[in-house]
Design brief:
This is DUF4920 domain-containing protein. It holds the Pfam family DUF4920. The protein has 207 residues and is mainly beta. It is built from four helices and nine strands. 14% of the residues lie in helices and 41% in strands. It starts with a strand and ends with a strand. The N terminus is likely disordered.
């Protein structure tokens, strides 16, 4: 058996193809086998040939900033002398005023707080909240006006004179009865108290 091999080579800058022709001779037949080899350079694509995939567009939404209202007007019902709602002390500032007073001292002032309690017979007095569980006991000048019996929990502004005094047990029990306290609660009052008091000539109560 004789084996004859022929090789043809062709080269260029980017591709290299090799063709091998193998001839196998036998006693009767001749078989030709062609083998092609393609270099890797022919199959590679340059990097810039691949188109970049664009990023998906992101929709931008405007954010609306809502500013809180700062000037909220409160409507008030007026009792007694006509007064204005501006320049009233807070309850925190008012208790400091009270703490600076001695029995016999008075100070002209205007302050704002929530009504804690009201006389349930005539509306001839009311108690206004102060910090620390304290209260200012407010009466009305010359008994000239009264406030609504259902004014408790409303915001109020009072203008007049603040002072401190010691209130007797009998007077405290009288106020407790007028305020609708039970007999058991009234019976617990056994000691006089140093009270923060106020004589108002004008009152504003929120509607």
């Amino acid at each position: 058996m004789a084996l004859i091999a022929f090789t043809a080579c062709q080269k260029n800058k980017e591709t290299e193809v090799k063709t091998e022709e193998t001839v196998i001779e036998t006693g009767k037949d001749t078989v030709h086998v062609d083998t092609d080899t393609v270099s890797a350079a022919e199959t590679e694509k340059p990097a810039d040939a691949v188109a970049a995939t664009p990023a998906p567009a992101v929709e931008e939404k405007a954010i609306e900033v809502v500013k809180p209202a700062t000037d909220i007007k409160v409507e008030y019902a007026s009792f007694g002398a006509k007064i204005k709602a501006d320049k009233a002390l807070t309850k925190e500032q008012m208790i400091q005023k009270y703490k600076s007073l001695k029995v016999g001292d008075t100070v002209a002032v205007k302050f704002k707080s929530k009504i804690k309690d009201v006389c349930q017979k005539k509306g001839c007095w009311m108690a206004m909240e102060l910090p620390g569980g304290k209260e200012s006991f407010v009466k009305f000048k010359d008994y000239a006006f009264f406030v609504p019996l259902n004014a408790a929990s409303s915001e109020a502004i009072v203008s007049g004179k603040a002072f401190v005094s010691e209130t007797s047990v009998a007077q405290l029990r009288h106020y407790a009865k007028d305020g609708g306290k039970s007999e058991a609660e009234i019976a617990k009052i056994t000691q006089p108290e140093m009270e923060y008091k106020f004589m108002a000539d004008g009152v504003l109560i929120s509607k």
